[in-house]
Design brief:
The chain has 101 residues and is mainly α. The chain has one domain (5-96). Helices cover 86% and strands 0% of the residues. Keywords: Membrane, Transmembrane, Transmembrane helix. The chain crosses the membrane at residues 51-71, 77-95.
Length: 101
């Protein structure tokens, strides 16, 4: 078993945001986000059913989307940490704690 997808997704959400923030290059942050999504998606497809994979992909994209309006309300760091924690929990519950198929 490779790196847990919870680590991949939370790391790419936080890392992509930090990279975009520190460099001022939003597309570069998007590359980190997309890379994390592809790597995690491949693992979800291998470990779970297509339905679970679809739910996790939608959750990942939704977490990214939710972080933006949430940041206006509670700030950047709290927003990214909150959506990353939710994504990590979803990954663990639906994919990482299960044995690979």
């Amino acid at each position: 078993m490779g790196l847990p997808t919870a680590v991949t997704t939370t790391g790419s959400l936080i890392g992509g945001w930090q990279l975009a923030r520190r460099t001022g290059n939003r597309p570069l942050g998007g590359v980190v986000l997309a890379t994390g999504g592809v790597l995690a998606g491949r693992e979800w497809a291998r470990r779970t059913s297509p339905a679970v994979t679809a739910v996790l992909v939608a959750t990942y994209v939704g977490a990214f989307g939710l972080s933006h309006p949430l940041a206006r309300r509670i700030g950047g760091w709290p927003s990214v940490l909150a959506v990353s924690a939710l994504m990590g929990a979803a990954c663990y519950a639906l994919a990482d704690r299960r044995a690979p198929r």
